[in-house]
Amino acid sequence: MSEHRYRARTLRGDYIRAGAGLALVGLPLAAAPVGETAGWVLGAMAALFAGFGGRTWLRQKSVYRVDETAIVREGPLGRAVPWEEMAALRLRYYATRRDRSGGWMQMTVRGAGATMRIDSTLEGFREVAAAALRAAAAAGLTLDAATLENARALGAAPRERR
């Protein structure tokens, strides 16, 4: 069994972004009277930044455990997907630059009434993705072309049977 967490260094940046966003939109709301429309817009933006901060906190408190039977997220909103019940697996790459350099991957695992989305900033993401890809191959799941290409780029593609 392996255990994986999001690194504090990565989460620190997300907390800073959430806090800065809340400060930028929350201070005008608290410091000066604003019109109704501006209040709604600033309030909605504050809710988005607060939600991002909440999501970051959930990632900080989550521990992923992977073994030969399942992937389990322990912590707030914990869930598990037994490999034998996995119904879908997707691996997506999100570029931050036009030339597709930089960016991150996100793996989505669905099954047993649960969905888990795991970002490539997770410590040991490659190993987690490789385990999920092996389980998908063993279950005979059909993976889309983007998932297969991203698995190859990650160096975690399942070996083809001959």
How would you describe this structure to a colleague?
The protein has 162 residues and is of the alpha+beta class. It folds into two domains: 7-61; 64-154, no CATH class. Helix content is 46%, strand content 24%. The protein is built from four helices and seven strands, in the order βααββββββαα. It has a four-stranded antiparallel sheet with strand order 1-2-3-4. The chain has a three-stranded antiparallel sheet with strand order 5-6-7. The longest helix has 26 residues, at 36-61. The protein is elongated. The model has no long low-confidence stretch (mean pLDDT 92).
Which key terms come to mind for this protein?
alpha+beta; elongated; 162 residues; single chain; 4 helices; three-stranded antiparallel sheet
Biggest beta-sheet profile: 4 strands, antiparallel
Regions with pLDDT < 50 over 5+ consecutive residues?
A: none
Proportion in β-strands: 15-25%
What would the principal axes of the Cα set say about the shape?
elongated
Number of domains: 2
Q: What count of helical segments does DSSP give?
A: 4
Order of helices and strands: EHHEEEEEEHH
| Span of the ends, CA to CA | 29 Å
Number of strands: 7
Mean pLDDT: 92
Instruction: Kindly name the structural category.
Output: alpha+beta
Q: Gyration radius, to the nearest Å?
A: 19 Å
Strand order of the largest sheet: 1-2-3-4
Q: What is the share of helical residues?
A: 40-55%
Outline the fold blueprint.
Layout: E1 2-4, H1 8-31, H2 36-61, E2 63-66, E3 70-74, E4 79-82, E5 86-94, E6 104-111, E7 114-119, H3 125-139, H4 145-154
Antiparallel strand pairs: 1-2, 2-3, 3-4, 5-6, 6-7
Helix pairs in contact: 1-2
